[in-house]
Design brief:
This protein is mainly α. It has 3 domains: 80-150, Dna Ligase, domain 1; 151-266, no CATH class; 271-414, no CATH class. It has helices at 24-67, 91-100, 107-115, 136-144, 176-184, 197-206, 216-223, 249-266, 269-276, 280-293, 299-311, 319-323, 335-338, 362-369, 394-406, and strands at residues 80-85, 126-131, 149-150, 152-155, 164-166, 172-173, 186-188, 191-193, 239-242, 328-329, 378-381, 388-391. The strands form 5 sheets. Strands 1-2-3 form a 3-stranded antiparallel β-sheet, covered by helices on one side. Helix 6 crosses helix 8. 34% of the residues are buried. It is an enzyme of class 4 (lyase). Belongs to the transglycosylase MltG family.
Length: 414
Amino acid sequence: MAEKWGSDKAKPESVGPPRRGLSPAQRKRKARKDQKRRTTRGLSLAALIVVLLGAVFLGSKLWHSMSGGANDYAGDGVADVVIQVHDGDSTTAIAKTLQNHKVVATVKAFVEAADKNEAISAIQPGFYKVRTEIPAANAVERLADPESRVGKLTIPEGRQLDDTADVKTNAVTDGIFTLISHASCVELDGKQQCVPVDQLRAAAQSAPPAALAVPAWAAGPVGAMPNDHRRLEGLIAPGTWNVDPAASAQDILSTLIAGSAAVYTQSGLLDTAAAMQLSPYQILTVGSLVQREAKPQDFDKVARVIYNRLAEHRKLEFDSTVNYPLDRQEVATTDDDRALTTPWNTYMSQGLPQTPICSPGTDALAAAEHPAAGDWLYFVTIDMQGTTLFTRDYEQHLANIELAQHNGVLDSAR
């Protein structure tokens, strides 16, 4: 009989130990282990979430600190403060200065406010009085307002350190110390503060030349006049300067002298002096005499008279050098004044005065560096329009003086 295929098919055999059901105790232990693993995984996940959230928070805070967030102050501010805008400062640099002084809350807020206000372009380097904790838009407006600027100092050409009085009119011309004192004044939270003239004069008189930033080419002459504030005469150049209202008298003077020395160097004073076989200090002194003795159209001629008289060992005999230590302005000095022996009186001493007698302007200094060609030894202004006659002949000079007297130019008020 034929066999049926598959009738005797082999049965599968079990592999491994026989399967048994877990006992109740085993099931409890397994449940506890599973629960522990789930709890551990949950805690780990929670800790990871906390770390990630912390990193996001700290990163966001750092980003806002560096690039500025959306925060801004509101209100009228807390207290007055003075900040400085440096030459070349970008809007972002100004914003960082403001943020560091707690004027604005963030850099971003100020930059955005500045972008919306064209007045930002009007902000000049200098010192500004603002308020702490004010809206960024308000900060932009304050910096653009000329009334907010403090410490702006303008020194006209020909000023000397001390005030001077006109003999005829008694009008007082503010000296450089007075101008500095005025520029240093600022009112903070209703209280006015200024650097007094007396402190400026004391610093000029007693501070070491190095502490006042006196340039090397002037250190010798300055050191030769100890305990005299006029030793700094001429070392502060005319022009517009920025004075820090919070600085000391000595620091203000050193900043101005250092800045002036840089101006003189850039103008070529040192190179010209070397070419003329003179010291820069001597040329500065000649420039101060030119400034006080002549009208601009005659600057180079007066400079030539000075050099001619020095070359021939003649006294300069300039009334401006008589007036200088007397702190007054007078065309016709008296015999008694001219007889006074001072470090500046060129009627009594030969050569240049011991210091400049004012701060010469650019044109007067240029004339001292590039005098006109001529053999003149004398000059005198003969009318109220400033006409000045130059000559080498003494007799002609006396005739010119007589003409000046006739026109009332040399009349003394005393």
